[in-house]
Write a structure and sequence with these properties.
seven-stranded parallel β-sheet
Length: 680
């Protein structure tokens, strides 16, 4: 089969060429033809009237003057000539191409490509040809190359490869989808994506490959999901509906409609014979903890144990105290296991847990130590799931016989990213805030207002409340002129000396010091906490009503929103001040967006558009796939469609047996998804 042949069969490859191609992960003809251009040079003739300023354009015109050459120094020159393009007399400028003086003659036709300066009526020429344009493609592919490989050489190899493989191209997309979405067949789309005859063909080729790429990715996700749901089995949690209803009625406030919907989604999963694998998203303060409590109580009524893992000791303690209060009237035994619990006390908890005398265990990563053994674990809840590694989460899950798993996060993730990064999970969203919670008032102020802001902070402190001051760096940096935590702590300690206690927290402190500082703030011993972003996740200090974020332009929208969510957790009106002098339009847009809305999902969508999916999570290892063609922001409708189609395919018997889907099954096999899913 030609597509499986080595690229060495192509004329002009040679030994060095083959090595360069190998560096680009191209070894076979198929590897080569599936290496798509990252853009196309557009050589279509355009009307200058419709061409925006600074746009690249190709025009045809008549030379109206003798070229003049200005030498600017060694091997540098500027050649200018007047050209009549339609009704426009423009200047064509050639840099370091003084030889064109002898080629261009008055009255002759010339074709020019370059950047159009609309105001000065000048084209800075990058390509030109003498005479009218009679041949040559309107679109020329541009590839990402390595080593000594040139675009011209690569295009020639691509042309050969396509001609060689044209009778050996297998269609993978089922005919019903090709017809329904009017997608170009594989062979045509492949030709068009490399050498499009016109703009529409290129658009249709891209549309087809975006869908195919997203369909393949979603097939992998759905195959894994099917395995999780069916092959592993799971705990059938036969909870007592009446007892759960009584617990919900005993809570200090009524559930929102969003909480009720999410509880129903989780309850339905728990009753199913497959293992729940669900992501619960909820904005800061939306009430995820109460949903976790209801789910844990339902598990206990079925005679099973539950576990709740939090990223920090103080957050684990907070959960334990809250749940103990809610469960006080009910026969539920709760225990807290963190790194601070040692010796006989720890051993007693381990013995009681193994004997089934503890119903719910709450803790940090201490829960995943080898000697922590449950008698019958039915439900695992991981809070702020992105703070734990995949292996840590898996170890906790493996402590039971395929217990149901619920991941919780307060980081609002746009739907497109949730489908991509967590495609094998079901996603529940709490998109409504509890009744009566006051919206945090957010202000954007310039740095010269710092004194006024501290005065406003002092009013809150005088009323008996507390404040956070957040800044991006720990200590002074030569490279970055941003206020740092240590300096700010020193300033505020001096300002409030004798009146209010100021605390300092940052990532370089030992974990015990961090815990102690946070505990002092939680208990009201510290009035002002100066911190880096380590407070972003976790603690609930209802008395904190004021937050100042210094150098706020240094943070992404989602991070700013997470930080802001540390205040506004009590009954008093809370305030967030963004101190920033952004230099870029994006920076200004972020500040404005923060003052306009408190909705984390609205901000997450804006952040995705401003920063792109790669930066959204603020770290490289985000679990997001690398796509050749697809773009998660612009192609979100295709992503939704591909997910729906992949789900229907994977759940149909026909997909696993039909000849028409053999190509998709083989691609799944090659990707490793089928061996992971082990589906018959």
């Amino acid at each position: 089969m030609a597509s499986k042949d080595s690229v060495a069969v192509l004329k002009g490859v040679g030994k060095q060429g083959a090595e360069t191609l190998k560096e680009m992960n191209i070894e076979t003809i198929r590897d080569l033809i599936m290496t798509f251009p990252y853009r196309h040079e557009d050589f279509q003739l355009k009307d200058l009237v419709d061409t925006p300023h600074n746009e690249r354009v190709t025009v045809e015109g008549r030379v109206e003057s003798e070229p003049s050459v200005l030498f600017l120094g060694k091997n540098k020159s500027r050649t200018t000539v007047q050209v009549m393009v339609g009704r426009h007399l423009i200047k064509a400028v050639f840099f370091n191409q003084h030889y064109v003086k002898t080629k261009l003659h008055i009255g002759e036709i010339v074709t020019l490509t370059g950047k159009w300066d609309r105001g000065r009526q000048i084209i800075t020429v990058s390509n030109h040809s003498l005479g009218p344009r009679t041949d040559g493609a309107d679109f020329e592919p541009v590839y990402s190359l390595k080593g000594s490989m040139h675009q011209k050489t690569f295009r020639k190899l691509m042309r050969q490869a396509l001609d060689l493989a044209k009778d050996d191209l297998e269609e993978c997309i089922p005919s019903k989808f090709l017809a329904e979405y009017k997608l170009a067949p594989f062979s045509e789309a492949l030709e068009w994506v490399h050498f499009p005859p016109d703009g529409e063909s290129l658009k249709q080729a891209r549309r087809r490959f975006v869908y195919e790429e997203l369909l393949m990715f979603q097939l992998k996700m759905q195959a894994l999901r099917k395995k999780n749901r069916e092959e592993e089995g799971g705990s059938f949690i036969d909870y007592d509906v009446d007892k759960v209803r009584n617990f919900v009625q005993s809570l200090p406030y009524e559930l929102t409609e969003a909480q009720k919907r999410v509880v129903n989604e989780i309850s339905k999963d728990m009753k199913e014979p497959f293992r729940m694998n669900r992501l619960l998203q909820g904005d800061v303060g939306s009430g995820k903890t109460v949903v976790a409590a209801i789910s844990l109580y339902a598990t206990v009524t079925a005679g099973l144990q539950g576990a709740l893992m939090a990223p920090t000791e103080i957050l684990a303690e907070q959960h334990a105290n809250t749940l103990a209060e809610w469960f006080e009237p009910f026969p539920v035994t709760i225990a807290l296991l963190t790194g601070s619990v040692k010796g006989k006390k720890r051993q007693l908890i381990l013995d009681q847990l193994a004997a089934g005398q503890i119903d719910i265990l709450i803790g940090t990563h201490a829960l995943i130590q080898p000697d922590v053994q449950f008698r019958k674990l039915g439900l695992v809840i991981t809070d702020e799931q992105h703070r734990f590694g995949v292996d840590q989460r898996r170890v906790l899950k493996d402590k039971g016989y395929n217990p149901d798993v619920l991941f919780m996060t307060a980081t609002p993730i746009p739907r497109t990213l949730a489908i991509s990064a967590f495609g094998e999970m079901d996603v529940s969203v709490i998109d409504e805030m509890p009744v009566g919670r006051k919206e945090i008032q957010t202000f954007w102020m310039k740095k010269d207002m710092f004194g006024k802001i501290v005065g406003r902070m002092e009013k809150e402190l005088a009323a008996g409340r507390q404040a956070y001051v957040i800044c991006p760096l720990i200590e002074e940096s030569d490279k970055l002129d941003f206020q740092n935590a240590v300096e700010l702590y020193s300033q505020l300690s001096s300002y409030f000396h004798g009146k209010y206690t100021v605390g300092l927290m940052h990532g370089r402190l030992h974990s015990d010091e961090k815990e102690e500082t946070m505990r002092s703030f939680t208990e009201g011993e510290i009035a002002v906490l100066v911190s880096t972003t380590v407070v972003e996740v976790g603690v609930n200090v209802p008395n904190a009503s004021f937050m100042l974020i210094y150098d706020a332009e240094r943070f992404g929208l989602s991070q700013l929103h997470q930080l802001r969510g540390r205040v506004g957790r009590g009954s008093e009106q809370s305030y967030c001040v963004l101190l920033a002098d952004p230099k870029t339009e994006i920076g200004k847009e972020r500040m404005t967006s923060m003052t306009e809305t408190n909705d984390g999902f609205v901000l997450a969508e804006k952040d995705l558009k401003l920063r792109g999916p790669g930066d959204f999570f603020g770290r490289k290892q985000s679990g997001l796939p690398e796509f050749k063609m697809a773009d998660l922001i612009h192609d979100y409708r295709a992503l939704e469609t591909a997910r729906k189609d992949a789900e229907s395919l994977v759940n149909s018997d026909e997909f696993w047996t039909s000849g028409e889907t053999a190509c998709l099954r083989r691609m799944l096999e090659e990707s490793g998804a089928l061996s992971m899913a082990r589906l018959d």
